[in-house]
Amino acid sequence: MELTDRVYATCEWDMMKSLMSVMPIKFTEYRPDIHDCDNFARELWGITAKMFPLLPIGYCHVVTEYGQKHAANFCIYRRPSGKPGFAFVEPQTGKMFMANWKPYLLIV
Residue 74's beta-bridge partner residues? Predict the structure, then answer.
């Protein structure tokens, strides 16, 4: 994982989930190879970086459990125990989830 800043602030799962649900990218039309997963993921990353610059929300490339390459986002959130948690964010919907994906590029 490549970190570009020295300091990040986290929030709990429910707050992060709420923030992701209001992202305007889900109103953009999907177009294969023109405006697809990597475009959505870069847009979500850019919007969140502008609105919430200290939250650790990143861009990633993954191989899904079906062996397909996909671009997505991820976030690091604070669990109730205070320890960090990791979740993927589907850029076309803003939904947070856990998955058996294998990331090969992670940028915060």
Answer: 58, 88
Q: Return the pLDDT at 62.
A: 96
Q: Which of 6-10, 63-67, 84-88, 91-95 has the highest mean pLDDT?
A: 63-67
pLDDT, tens digit, 9 for 90 and up, residues 35-78: 899 999 999 999 888 988 899 999 999 999 999 999 999 999 98
The amino acid occupying position 66 is Y
CA angle 51, 23, 2 (to 5 degrees): 60
CA distance 46 to 102: 23
Q: What angle do CA 41, 18, 93 make, to 5 degrees?
A: 35
Q: What share of the chain is helix, strand, coil (3-state, %, to 5)?
A: 25, 35, 40
Q: Is the dihedral of CA 6, 19, 21, 77 positive or negative?
A: positive
